[in-house]
Amino acid sequence: MQDYLVSIILTAGIYAIFALGLNLQWGYAGLLNFGHVAFMAIGAYTTVLLSMNGVPLILAVLAGMVLAGACGAFLGVATLRLHEDYLAIVTIGFSEIIRFILLNWSSLTRGSFGIYGYPRPLEGLIAHEDYNLLLAGVVIVVLLLVYALIEILAKSPWGRVLKSVRDDEAVSVSLGKNAFSYKVQSLALGSAIAALAGSLLAFYLQYINPNNFQPIETFYAWIMVILGGSGSNRGTIAGAILLWGFFSTTRFLEGYVSLSPSASGALRMVIIGLILIALMMFRPQGLFGRKEELAVGK
Asked: How far is it, in rounded angstroms, from Cα 72 to Cα 121?
């Protein structure tokens, strides 16, 4: 039972970090990113490949974050002068481009066979069977640091300008703010946070392949943000806990219903969809969100 609870904490914590990056982009800047998983994949593969070639883990993680942030900024520069819909379309395409590169560049990524046997942080300090408990502590610390960073930024002049750009870009521009620059910065920072989550996911799984980074992972992050409330960092964390708690507890029901594993997974997604519909009807701002946040783009 302890191992099971630790696995839930690890998964929920990693995906909470992942979703916080998306919340920074959507909840604070109003940017539609439907390819967020691409930056998680960049972080995971960059960290793993560099560490296997002798680069210290901390530098490998930072390199993954910088690369993902640069890719996010590049997509922003290419699309954010156009209508917001272009960013949504381009990020979907970018996530699939990254996944297919990882799948087909087998000389570098081992393709569908995946990569395993790479180093993990602090693994020499504790017995192998207890490592996940240590990693859970690391994930919680990183989650708190990311949460604190975003909260500080949100309450700073930078965060206030970002929200003003989200709510009415024309007003911000008329006051002399470079709305384009702020949106690119938000996209880059959110992408770097997703890469950090990817590095932690690689450490947890001990094995990565391109199928770990399917488009559905992005929409898990969207579910977390919507459940918790757009623009609410604590809500995003709560959404991650609720989503993965739901996934984990409903697995126990498989022994009591005559459904195949694939049918059970589909049923879980149907139930989540119904919960989201009910949430939109009765509390559209999410569990911790504010109604003012629904005015994005108005």
From this structure: 26
pTM attached to this predicted model: 0.92
pLDDT at 220 over 60: yes
pLDDT of residue 64: 97
Task: Write out the two tokens for 87.
Answer: 């960013």
State both tokens at 22. Answer: 């998306």
CA separation for the pair 133, 126 (Å, rounded): 10
Q: Are β-strands 115-116 and 207-208 bridged in parallel, bridged antiparallel, or unpaired?
A: antiparallel
> How much is the pLDDT for 298?
42
- CA angle in degrees (0–180, nearest 5) for 223-226-232: 125
In sequence order, which residues have a C-beta less than 8 Å from that of residue 179 and are 6 or more positions away?
165, 169, 172, 173
- The burial class, CB within 10 Å (0-12 / 13-18 / 19+), for 113 is exposed
| Neighbouring C-beta atoms of residue 110, cutoff 10 Å | 15
* Bridge partner list, 50: none
Tokens 């604590």 belong to 234
Give dist(CA 180, CA 162) in Å, integer. 10
Residue 208 host element (H or E): strand 207-208
Per-residue pLDDT tens over the stretch 230-260: 889 999 999 999 998 888 877 766 666 666 6
> Lowest-confidence range among 55-64, 107-116, 265-274?
265-274
H helices of the chain, in order, are: 2-23, 37-52, 57-79, 84-104, 106-109, 131-155, 157-167, 169-174, 179-205, 216-228, 233-250, 261-282
* 144 token code pair: 């708190």
Contact 202, 2 (CB under 8 A): no
> Rounded CA gap, 210 and 97, in Å?
11
Cα 289 → chain centroid: 19
